[in-house]
Design a protein that fits this description.
The complex is a heterodimer. Chain A is an all-alpha fold. Chain A contains 14 helices and four strands. In chain B, the strands form four sheets. In chain B, strands 5, 6, 7, 8, 9, 12, 13 and 14 form an eight-stranded mixed sheet that branches. In chain B, strands 1-2 form a two-stranded parallel ribbon. Chain B has a two-stranded parallel sheet with strand order 3-4. Classes of the chains: A mainly alpha, B alpha/beta.
Chain lengths: ~350, ~450
């Protein structure tokens, strides 16, 4: 009743091809943006912003990047942590070595470093597919770990190999309070997500999907596999690289290569699988699931158990958190193998017919 | 939608938690960042037990001039991102000081602490250059840093050889955990190696260090005269087992204090006999008064954390001493800002900077024989550079050296130059005399 496109006539191609052709969708997204930019910073506590929302926003961005490669182009990658690391260390080097380097260009240059790195490690994708490619991209992960641990030049010869940044600012506005950090990350996310959404709707996005669905057929149709695969690697690692830069600069502040370990790669892959492959929305759901849920469990478990008069040790909470989290992953994959995004679209479909389902 | 409901729920919960904090406003809150799970749990658990037990003991003794301590544990799993989350979670409850118990976490919180005005206490670990209080206003590596540890290890080796000049041409291998923690001693050991002409071989071990076959193959080939083990958690046990397998004499192995506790050697027991480790002040102290007090006043009432027979072990003592230094910082702050009041982070910072633990004070706290007197100042946030070596005899750790003091001539310039580099990088100006009074 409320969500129905009846009576919304499109009179031009332009209107027909809009990102959100349905007025209710536009309204919803508009409201969501207002909530994210205005209501949340006003209401959320410092802890909520710093410990939950900032990592969520950054990880959504990274998951978006992974989704372009894995979900849209079908190239399974386990090198996402490495691309994040290259983005972070690239941005760090530009930021520290060039005096007066502003933050945003440094992050973008870091993203471009990740692009080069991603294209280089995407080359095997021209020959190997599927799980074999995953193993090949794993090499990127180990290479990056090695590079940032052993080559002192990248860490400016700091004795411990841990690097840090401070005095971040954008157009003269300092990025140090929780709200400013959140808004900065959110702005980056919105801009990049908009670009990504448009990219996957364009010719290049269709090429990626054609390659994903059947690469031989795509090649017969005249799509160049090399071009399509490498552009997917380039775009995806750029986005992941920028996310890596934000993770290091804004969230951690000081970091070491362990912050971008193979665990991070797996987490990102799980985010897109659980969130929904080939869906921009899915990246957000996946990031929320993987980033927010464990912390929420950790916080709620003692309170919930406390209601029944059970007290639980810190280690117990941690173990329980892992167990419940694992069970939820399995459960979600069984009931909805296409990810949380599929639930979302099913919901929308249902809403269309509501309240008269027949 | 999901996110929003979750966000709302979390806000509701945190609101609930803050009302809880209001109800107990007369209590000094201390966040406890610990790890009882993950690859480092065998070492993290006794530390956390000691820390929490000491806080309970302070309450059992009547609090700090009547102010009771409250605390909450947060599990970090030795993960930097999770450590930051825990720090953010607990700081809003009026954190007096924070001890992250991880070098990665220390680096991350170093950037956040000045803005949040929470002193960062890293007893014996963290970044070595933060001993320079004129640059690192909020960092307190009280009672030693990794540079102190590595310097005293080298002193012990030199003593064994019969003097620094005898080290010329010797080979010393540093087997280290490949992380900021493991890399900390390299700067100092390089300095010493250039000074005395011994050859330093660096052998990194990828974290967590379960596989060290290639490292020990290298040791078998190059046969270094001494091996310095800079490990943590499972890496230590593995290294000692590998040494046993390769036939490397354990007497010639020296571990950092993170590699010198019961969990590291007890699985190897006899095989680890003769293995040495540096201790920052204390070792296993089952006979000290503070341990007896904890057993009588905390464990006897059934409030003890962890198993009773582990009370007084090396890492347990480490936790207790870390807690003691923090709470004594609060006590020192109370002496200036008002006894029996709850101190803010800023006030505690002053207390930690003007800590003066004399021998009578230590005796009263039950730390007689456990550690030496410590006094910190505006420029010196470390307070003491004394250490001892203890050796595993197959059953327990026993002291095998006298007190040794790390050489200020070596460490001071290194601290100054590294801290100055940090200051220029961060565009900080060194604190002046007036700032020291605040």
């Amino acid at each position: 009743m409320i969500y129905r496109e009846n009576g919304q006539f499109k009179t031009s191609y332009r209107a027909d091809q809009a990102i959100f052709p349905i007025a209710q969708d536009r309204l919803f997204i508009g409201l969501l943006l207002v909530v994210a930019f205005v209501v949340v910073p006003g209401l959320a506590s410092d802890y909520l912003l710093r410990a939950l929302l900032i990592p969520f926003v950054i990880m959504s961005l990274a998951a978006l990047g992974v989704n372009i490669l894995v979900g849209y182009c079908g190239q399974i990658s386990l090198g996402s942590g490495a691309f994040m690391a290259v983005g972070a260390y690239g941005a760090y080097n530009f930021f520290q070595r060039l005096p007066g380097m502003p933050l945003v260009p440094a992050l973008i240059l870091g993203g471009l470093c990740a692009t080069c790195f991603g294209v280089l490690f995407g080359l095997p994708s021209l020959r190997v597919k599927g799980l074999y490619l995953a193993v090949a991209t794993l090499a990127a992960q180990f290479f990056a770990d090695w590079m940032f641990l052993r080559i002192k030049w990248f860490t400016l010869d700091t004795p411990s190999g841990s690097v840090s940044v401070s005095n971040l600012q954008v157009f003269g506005l300092p990025i140090d309070s929780a709200v400013s950090k959140y808004l900065f990350c959110l702005a980056m996310l919105v801009v990049i997500a908009l670009l990504a959404k448009n990219l996957v709707r364009s010719a290049i996005g269709r090429e990626w999907m054609a390659i994903r669905d059947m690469d031989v057929a795509a090649a017969v149709l005249g799509i160049r596999p090399m071009y399509a695969k490498l552009t997917a690697f380039a775009v995806s690692s750029f986005i992941i690289g920028v996310a890596g830069g934000l993770w290091a600069f804004v969230y951690l502040g000081a970091w070491e290569p362990a912050a971008f370990s193979v665990d991070q790669s797996f987490r990102l892959l799980f985010m897109v699988i659980i969130g929904g492959l080939g869906s921009i929305m899915g990246s957000f759901f996946g990031a929320a699931f993987i980033v927010v849920l464990p912390i929420a469990l950790n916080q709620f478990l003692p309170a919930i158990l406390g209601m029944f008069g059970i007290s639980i040790s810190t280690a117990g909470i941690s173990h329980a958190e892992l167990m419940i989290f694992g069970v939820l992953i399995v459960w979600f994959l069984i009931v909805e193998p296409h990810g949380l995004a599929k639930l979302w679209s099913t919901g929308k479909q249902k809403l269309r017919l509501w309240p008269f389902p027949h | 939608m999901k996110i929003r409901t979750l966000a709302l729920a979390v806000t509701a919960l945190s609101a609930l938690a803050s009302t809880g904090a209001f109800a107990q406003a007369k209590e000094q809150f201390i966040p406890v960042l610990s790890y009882r799970t993950g690859p480092y749990a065998p070492n993290g658990t006794p530390w956390a037990n000691g820390f929490v037990d000491y806080l309970k003991l302070v309450n059992a003794r009547g609090g700090l001039n009547g102010v009771k301590l409250s605390f909450e544990e947060c599990e970090t799993g030795y993960d930097t991102a999770r450590t930051v989350e825990c720090y953010e979670r607990l700081k809003s409850r009026g954190a007096s000081f924070v001890q992250p118990l991880s070098t990665g976490g220390t680096f991350a919180i170093t950037e956040k602490a000045p803005a949040d005005k929470i002193p960062l206490v890293t007893v014996g670990y963290g970044r070595s250059e933060s001993a320079d209080g004129s640059v690192f206003k909020w960092n307190f590596p009280i009672a030693g840093t990794y540079w102190v540890a590595s310097d005293t290890i080298l002193q012990a080796i030199a003593k064994k050889e019969g003097g620094w000049d005898k080290l010329k041409g010797k080979k010393i291998a540093l087997v280290y955990h490949d992380s900021p923690f493991g890399k900390e001693p390299i700067a100092l050991m390089r300095e010493r190696s250039a000074l005395h002409g011994f050859e330093l071989t660096l052998l990194p071990v990828t974290a967590p260090g379960v596989d060290q076959k290639s490292t020990w193959l290298q040791i078998r080939q190059s046969r270094p005269d001494y091996v310095v083990l800079w490990g943590w958690g499972i890496m230590n046990t593995t290294a000692i087992k590998e040494a046993q397998a390769t036939g490397y004499p354990r007497e010639k192995m020296y571990g950092v204090w993170w590699a010198g506790a019961e969990p590291d050697v007890k699985d190897v027991a006899e095989g680890a006999k003769g293995y040495n480790a540096v201790t920052m002040q204390h070792g296993a102290e089952p006979n000290s008064k503070v341990v007896k007090d904890i057993l009588d006043m905390v464990h006897a009432k059934g409030q003890g954390t962890g198993p009773k027979d582990e009370v007084g072990q090396v890492l347990y003592m480490r936790g207790a001493m870390s807690a003691m230094l923090g709470t004594e910082g609060i006590r020192a702050a109370q002496e200036r800002y008002g006894k029996g009041k709850v101190m803010t982070g800023e006030q505690v910072r002053w207390g930690l900077e003007n800590l003066n633990l004399t021998q009578p004070k230590l005796d009263a706290l039950g730390f007689a024989g456990v550690m030496r007197p410590i006094s910190t100042s505006c420029v010196d946030h470390m307070g003491s550079a004394w250490a001892r070596i203890h050796t595993w005899d197959g059953k327990q750790w026993k002291f095998t050296s006298d007190w040794m003091q790390a050489d200020e001539q070596i460490i001071k310039p290194l601290v100054k130059s590294t801290a100055a580099k940090y200051a220029t990088e961060k565009k900080l100006t060194a604190r002046n005399g007036a700032d020291c009074q605040s």
